[in-house]
# Entry
Amino acid sequence: MTTKKHSKDSLAIENDYGASAPARTPWDTARRTMRHQDLASLGWQELLMEGRIPSRLIRRARPMRAVYRRLPTDPRCRICFAPFAGTGGRLVAALARATPSSFSMQLCNHCEYLARGQKTGADVTAALVFADIRGSTRLANEMSGPEFARFIDRFYTAATDVLVRNEAIIEKLVGDQVAAIFVPGLVGERYPDRAVSAAMELQEAFGAGTTDEAWAPVGIGVHTGTTFVGVVGTTGGMTELAVLGDVPNVTARLAGAAGAGETLISEATIQAMAEVPAHNTRTIEVKGKDEPMTVGVLSPGVRI
# Structure
């Protein structure tokens, strides 16, 4: 939304559809601010659910879209078309400092900044994957500080490689945990299948299911449902992508209940999958839930 100055006491606010009218009172400004937030939330929801890029982001990126779209090579930013690989990728990285964003290979760092500036979010249907190192406190006690830092760095690197390859949004890398979001707008209709497949690839990347002991003992939880996904933080200050609500809470509980090398998937995820892999079942107690949950248990080596 663009704000145009008409006089000292009157502001005209242009919406996505080009309509413009002066805001004569504080209430007018408040209503238009709410309208702006509604449009931003709608655009965010369309991006995550349908893969449609919000028009306000396209307008801001338009000067570079005409240039970047002529450069090789895919993959590239879905908003400004900045390439990430090949000669084109090296060129825009050197001249424009455009690189993949911190949370998705489908955006560049500049467009991530624009998206964060929207400071908005929406309820979307998503599949969540949380991975949690088992016994990290013991491992930290057994290693020196630099050794543990290298271990965590290897954990983050291995997880990021798998999640980026599977088109996930990386919600956070913090402490001994990794959290990712799979949404239909970026992954496709089979987003629950992609989430479970990525979880099993993660276990393989951590060394589970091999003849040797896994170098990273990790438990993983996968859950599917409607949850808030958006940018939160202080106005003009620190912001971050966040997923909020019951779905991430349950996903975190599943990851915490999974043993080293195990992946626990909720019934909601199993019901939403197009192809369900062979699995065992288990009943677990979940904090905050009145009834026990029945979950699927996947062993390392399962492929979808």
Summary: The two ends are 44 Å apart (CA to CA). The chain is about 40% helix and 25% strand. The domain at 121-298 is CATH 3.30.70.1230 (Alpha-Beta Plaits).
